[in-house]
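Quick one - first record:
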Amino acid sequence: MTIATINPTNGELVKSFDPMSDAQVDAAIGRADAAFHELHGTSFAQRAGWMVAAADLLDAERDEVARMMTTEMGKTYASAKAEVTKCAAACRFYAERAEAFLADEPADAKAVGATRAFVRHQPLGPVLAVMPWNFPLWQVIRFAAPALMAGNVGLLKHASNVPQTALFLEELFRRAGFPEGAFQALLVGSEAVERILGDRRVRAATLTGSEGAGRAIARTAGEQLKKTVLELGGSDPFVVMPSADIARAAEVATTARCQNNGQSCIAAKRFIVHTDVYDAFAEAFVERMAALRVGDPMAEQTDVGPLATERGRKEVDEQVRDAVERGARVLCGGQRPDRNGWWYPPTVVTELTPEMRMWSEEVFGPVAGLYRVSSYEEAIEVANGTEYGLGSNAWTRDPAEQERFANDLDAGSVFVNGMTTSFPDLPFGGVRNSGYGRELSAYGIREFCNVKTVWVGEGTEAGAGAGAHAE
């Protein structure tokens, strides 16, 4: 496995790294185990101080960190800066709220024959985080900030094309004051994950990535009886109904499809439009997509940079070609440019049918599928007609329809008249083949905690009585 920074604008090698040996990985796990025992003994106030220090470092070094991310995976410099700022905000969010999120929860002691009864949330230990390249800082921080504030420690196996970001994250938490070994980057290939997860000292795993990678992690963790949280792929629907603000929907649709150069699990990918407004939406959407400026991701005027990897660009190109060969029609884009680097233009494809790959597969690039439907029921059928269930969008000004979409869209989130995104305040995750478990909010910080029941009686008589009714 090559671990290297390769500039996606020209395909040139920037910097390469030697993978860690088994002995180096074992030593890192040992440091993580020791750090857990140290971190578990600290107070929320101590951890909050370190987490705020990490946020301060992110803010102070925003531009430098953003340039690193843009060089490694091609996102625009503007979006990279916004990502760093969002990460700093998430660190502060958990620094301020972790103690309340994990506070003891009292139960009705009298009902269970106790003098006191409550639930306590306690950290599990070292958690393996297998993370992708598309949001190389945010994907990690949304795990790391709650995990560290809960008293867990992290072992990061980052994507092999963003090693500098991985090493920066390790240094970030060390510089912020967290104990040595509390958060470490493991520069290894995917073939090493099974052995790491099999180590008895590693207590759980979280993965953001492909369905195949998620199944592999879940299989290994299941054999080891270890907790997992999986955030996998998505093919989010973007449903537009007749009452929608069409101009606004088309504007947001363009951003929703092409954010991060189209490489986002929660990017809107399938645009499902009622026939009454289909032509108006299609015209506005195609016009906006065609007007996006593709170019140097460091340039201020650029809207869309290159895709992160050569393999990813090849996959997108093949999906579009397959659709065209089977009768689909391209309304804009659709041609891979003849230039160095891994570029692909914003593209809209219509007249899609179930035998085409674009109908059922996730398209991880700036390519939109456009679907015409004649009713609410047909819109729901198409929207839920994949194995994915991560995010979803619905555009309607009808309150009754808004409520129906909230119930009927089979996804981890429903955004009405707005773009699907993630907030520290709200839980994030999917259903079906988009994974399970939740990140962010109070739900996210509790995922890697032991939810411990504590029952306190007043002597042997109460204890004996309780035992008589066990289970």
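second record:
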Amino acid sequence: MTRSYISRIFRFAPSPNGYLHLGHGFSALLNREMARAAGGKLLLRIEDIDLERCRPEFEQAIYDDLAWLGLDWQQPVRRQSEHFDAYSEALTSLKKRGLVYPCFCSRADVVAAASEQADVKRDPDDSPLYPGTCRHLSPAERKRRLDAGQSATWRLDMAAALKEVRHAIDWREYDGGTEPRLVEAEPALWGDVVLARKDVPASYHIAVVVDDALQGITDVVRGEDLFTATGLHRLLQTLLDLPSPDYHHHELLRDAAGRKLSKSLRAKSLRALRQDGFTPSEIEAQLGLNERSFSFVP
């Protein structure tokens, strides 16, 4: 589906599973500056589908940190945990067309099955590709297991999905610059990816494309670590007849060892930097935002 842009809408979409660090601040400020340059709007979305790890105190810290940086955003804020029905509707559409199937394998099962292969194939996140164990179950066996209450994830049947699309998929990529280029999507790199988990009724991949469509997002500004995932997102957008935003994948901030800043590696938080006496202008200078010029080519 194509879109006729009237105004540009950007979004910053953090997860409240820890405190924001400089990498988040960089992405948030880039979204703000690009929205300003485009004469557009900036939305804030709280991606809290992981109910076990996401906490109210981290969500409040997001609001505090972004306000301290000088960001403002359109209200109301969309919280993913309040919209599971929208993700379920999208998944149901794929189920009816035979494009997803229930998978009863545990993570250990997947690793064990993949290790039995002579050449273990991996997805862009370096996880073993699912070997398709449950894809080969008969409809009767799937129903028997589901009726018995056996828990299951729901996986995209990648081969069936690509067969339905029948054409190449691409997206407009700005690479953090002002001139776009077309990038051909390679969703097959992800194999039969999980779209709904046993403990959460949606994965990041299906939730993000549904949210972007429902919020009218025209421009996705996010880290280059999600560049390859965009190919999968473009496939889902095509299957669900959703519009495709333009994408701007920016460089990542890294530590002295060359690792990207992350919560799991305990990158120093914006909260801690504020407590250390840093000002927002000093943060922007440290991030090099004062040296960038922002313009927009629709």
